[in-house]
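Co-fold these.
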Amino acid sequence: MGLQTLTEPTVLDATLRHLSRTALPKVLQVQQGIVRATHAFMFKKGLTQLMPLMLSPITDPLNHGVVDATIGYADQRWSLTKSMIFHKQLALLNPALDSLYIVSPNVRLEFADRAATGRHLFEFTQIDFEFKNKDRFFVMEFMEELVNFVFRCLNEEIPEVLLELRGELLPQYEKWAVHRTEKLEETYGPDYERIVSEQATEPFWLLNHRREFYDKEDPKKPGTYLNYDVIWPEGFGEGLSGAERENEYQQIRKRMAEVGTSEETFAHYLEVARTQGLPRTAGGGFGVERMTRFICRLQDVDEVTVFSRKPFTTAAF
Amino acid sequence: MGLQTLTEPTVLDATLRHLSRTALPKVLQVQQGIVRATHAFMFKKGLTQLMPLMLSPITDPLNHGVVDATIGYADQRWSLTKSMIFHKQLALLNPALDSLYIVSPNVRLEFADRAATGRHLFEFTQIDFEFKNKDRFFVMEFMEELVNFVFRCLNEEIPEVLLELRGELLPQYEKWAVHRTEKLEETYGPDYERIVSEQATEPFWLLNHRREFYDKEDPKKPGTYLNYDVIWPEGFGEGLSGAERENEYQQIRKRMAEVGTSEETFAHYLEVARTQGLPRTAGGGFGVERMTRFICRLQDVDEVTVFSRKPFTTAAF
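Predicted complex below.
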C-alpha cells in the first residue's frame, strides 16, 4: 500500500475551487436579474434609493447574538451595520421623502452554530425598503407584487438559465397565505417554521414574532406584534422580515426594556423620538442571496457566493 | 444688548438638518438614476454583477494612508474593504466569467486633512468593473460609452430635476481628450490635476500615475504605468481610476517592493500568481457620489449623503 496522501485541502485550494465552480456564473446571472428587476420595480413605484452605510454609531441589535464588529475612528466607536433599519426610518424625517430603499451589505458575524444551517452568511446583501404613513397590509401587497415582477423579468430575460438551474420557469403567485406564529406553534411545536416551509409550495406570510424593539406592538393587543416575515416554500425558510415600526418615545423605551436594549447606546435615537418624533413607517428587507438560493433551488446559500462567507469558515480573500 | 446665545449646533441638530435638506431628495434621484442606468448598461454589455464584500483578509493598500479598519472574527483579522480590486481580479479566474462589475461601499477612514477637500467621504459607493483579456483602450472606450448612456437616461427620465439642480440637461460627449501626468506637471506644476480640471469643459483622461503595485508597469517603458483616470471638468476632479493590472508573479513582487507593500499580507495572492497565474485583466472604478456631485454641480460631495460621512466629522447615526 502506498503512502496515504489524503490531506485536507488548503484554504487557498478551497477558495479557488469555490470561485471556479461551473454553475457559479449562471447563479450570478439570476442574482443580477433579481437586483436589476428590483431597481426597476422600485423606480416604477416611486421609491428613492439611498446608498448603504457600513459604519454607524448605532445599528440593528438583532434578535440573536453575534460577534461584536466595531472599530474606532475620529474619537468614536462605529459598528459595522447589520441592517439599514434605523437609517431608513430616520431618513424618512425628510419631508419630501415618502418611501425609500437601500441595497446594502449587512455584516452579521454569526457564531459557529450557524455555519451549517444552509441559510446563513456572515456578510450578505439585503434590499431594505420603508414607507412613511403606510401599514402592514400595504407593505405585504407591495412585496407580493415585487416578487411577481422580479419572477416575470427573470422568465423573460434568462429563461434558459432558469430551466437549467431550477428545472422550470418561475411561477406567478396569487395572494399568499397568511399564518400566525402562535397558531403554527400550537400545531407543529417549536420547529413550526421549518415544517410549514417544507410542506408549502408557495411563499407565505408569518405574522407576530416577538423580537427587536423596533417592530410595533399591537396597541389593541399588547404582547402581539405588527410584523410579518416571508417564508419561502420547499424548505427554503425565511426570506424577508418586516414590520410596522414603533415610533413613540415611551413605547420605544418600554419595548427596549422588555428585550434588553441599552438606552444609552440609543440616546440620540431616543432624543429624536422624544423631541421631534419619529415618522410612522412600515417596511421590510429581503436577502438577495436567499432569494437567489430559492430560485435556483440550492442546498446552501453559500453556493451563491464567489468568495465563501459561511460563518466561521477561514478565508484567503 | 441681550445675552449672546450663539452656540455650536449639537451633533444631533446638525444630523437632522443635513438629512432634512430640501434639495436632498432630488440629488438622490440623480444618484439613483446613475445606478439604475449603470445596471442597464452593464447588462446590455454582458457584464456579470457580483455582490460586494465588506470584509476580507486583504484589501486595496491604496496610494495614501488612512486609519486602520480591521476587526477580529473566527480566528482571523479582516479588513473593511477599501475597494473590490483583488476580488474582481480573482473572480475572473472562473473560466466562464469574462467581465464583471460590483456596486460596492468602500470604507476609507481618511485623516482629518481630507475633511475639507469637498471630494472625500470616509465611506462611499464605488462601481468597480473589470474585463479579462482586454486592454486600456477597450476600457476607456467602454467608460466613455457608459457616461453617454447614463447621461442620456437621466435626460430622458428626470429632465426637470436636472434643469433645477444643474441648470441645463447633460451633454453627449465625443471622444475625450487624453493627457499624461508627466506632461501636465511639466506645464502646470504639482497642482496640475486641479488646474486642468478647472479649465476643462469636458471630462478627460489622465494617464500614467505612479501608485499601487497592481497597476501595470509598461513593459516597454519601465517607470511608466498603463493606468488611466477620468477627471471631471469644471474643477470637480478625479471621477474614475483604472488600469491594466499586473498579473505576473515576479513583476508583482518587484512592484510591491518598490511601493512598500507587505508580501506577507499578500501571501495567498502571491501564491495564486506564482502557481496558477492571475488572469490578464483591465478595469476601473468610479465613485457614485462624485459623479452625482459633478452632475448636480455641488460644492461638496457630502451634499450627496443623507448622513454626513465627511472625514473626521462626529456622527449621531
